[in-house]
Design brief:
The complex is a heterodimer of chains A (156) and B (159). Chain A has 156 residues and is of the alpha+beta class. Chain A is 19% helix and 43% strand. Chain A is built from 3 helices and 8 strands, in the order βαβββαβαβββ. Chain A has an 8-stranded mixed barrel with strand order 1-4-3-2-6-7-8-5. In chain A, a hairpin with a 7-residue loop joins β7 and β8. Chain B is α+β, with helices and mostly antiparallel strands and 159 residues long. Chain B is globular and about 45 Å long. Chain B starts with 13 loop residues before the first strand and ends in an 11-residue tail after the last strand. The chains are: A alpha+beta (156), B alpha+beta (159). Chains A and B meet through β1, α1 and β5 of A and β1, α1, β4, β5 and α4 of B.
Chain lengths: 156, 159
């Protein structure tokens, strides 16, 4: 068959939102829509994460809740450079990315690279890995490729 | 102390993505994400209430599934809608999450008490109703409520 074959992502697993005030937003979603309750991780250190080819250190606050089979993730940038801070700086707030969990992280990134999509923000930590791919050219969807395939069980 | 939620929406059923050109986006997402096959449809909508005023619009939409959710691509062909506003302000991208409700009017009334009002909404009596809620200003997220009478399944294709 001539040409590139299609990349096939697994079903959407996560919907990610970037917000200015995570606690307030999580409380609002739960009290108004029954979305949540969210479990909040007050600080996540993102050291040496590659932002468009350059290592960066940043801190974020995250929260997770389930909506059926999907995970809803709220992200508030706390300090440093990352794509979440950029999103807010661009005057955006809200829906940010769709997350897809894969078995073959490196292979998936290689296939995206073949199609001209380089990760804009990514790191392989050894025990877990993530990479954001921005389809800014068409459709404007930020896809997050996540490894491992299975979501980690969140402790109580 | 957390008070009881005003409403309890069911799981997200749809992610709405505003695009400039549905045909181009369908082709791109099929090749790049493996999404599809998409069902493509044009819809002429008369008398939709948008921020208190009534207007007409024409949309081109494409629908596909990704596991538990539907992916909706939306292109505005004519008229002013929250999608055309989104496109002007942000460009293409994810614009709303849709949740199914049994009673759209009733849910709107409960949410009004929470200070959340409908932005873009319409009722098709006995068939369906939808309402995009003004939650994007408070939290960035546009929530769409959607009510549909299951006996009229064949009538789908609402935004």
């Amino acid at each position: 068959m001539a040409g590139q074959s299609s990349i096939v992502l697994p079903p959407v697993d996560q919907i990610g939102l970037v917000v200015r005030d995570l606690e307030r937003t999580a409380a609002f979603y739960y009290s108004t829509f029954g979305l949540g309750p969210f479990s909040i991780v007050p600080e996540v250190k993102f050291d040496g994460v590659i932002l468009r080819g350059r290592p960066t250190d940043s801190k974020i606050k995250v929260a997770f809740a389930d909506s059926g089979s999907l995970q809803i993730e709220l992200i508030q940038p706390l300090e440093g450079e990352n794509i979440y801070a950029e999103f807010l700086q661009a005057g955006r707030e809200g829906l940010h990315h769709l997350g897809f969990r894969v078995d073959d992280f490196d292979g998936m990134l290689a296939r995206f690279k073949d199609r001209g999509l380089e990760p804009v923000f990514w790191k392989h930590f050894g025990f877990t890995a993530f990479a954001y791919l921005d389809t800014a050219k068409v459709g404007g969807v930020m896809a997050e490729v996540l490894w491992p395939k299975e979501r980690r069980k969140r402790g109580k | 102390m957390t008070k009881e939620p005003a409403v309890r929406l069911p799981p997200v059923e749809q992610v709405g993505i505003v695009v400039r050109d549905v045909d181009q986006a369908v082709e791109y997402f099929a090749a790049t994400f493996g999404w599809g096959p998409f069902k493509i449809r044009e819809s002429e909508m008369k008398g939709v209430t948008y921020d208190g005023r009534t207007g007409d619009c024409r949309l081109k939409m494409a629908f596909a599934r990704s596991g538990g959710v539907e992916i909706e691509l939306i292109q505005v062909l004519e008229g002013e809608t929250p999608h055309s506003d989104f496109l002007r302000r942000h460009g293409e991208g994810m614009q709303h999450l849709r949740f199914r409700v049994d009673d759209c009017d009733g849910t709107i009334a409960v949410l009004a008490n929470e200070g959340v009002d409908p932005l873009w909404h319409q009722k098709f009596p006995g068939i369906a109703a939808f309402a995009y809620m003004k939650t994007d200003k408070t939290s960035g997220l546009m929530v769409e409520l959607f009510e549909k009478k299951e006996s009229r399944e064949g009538r789908g294709g609402l935004a």
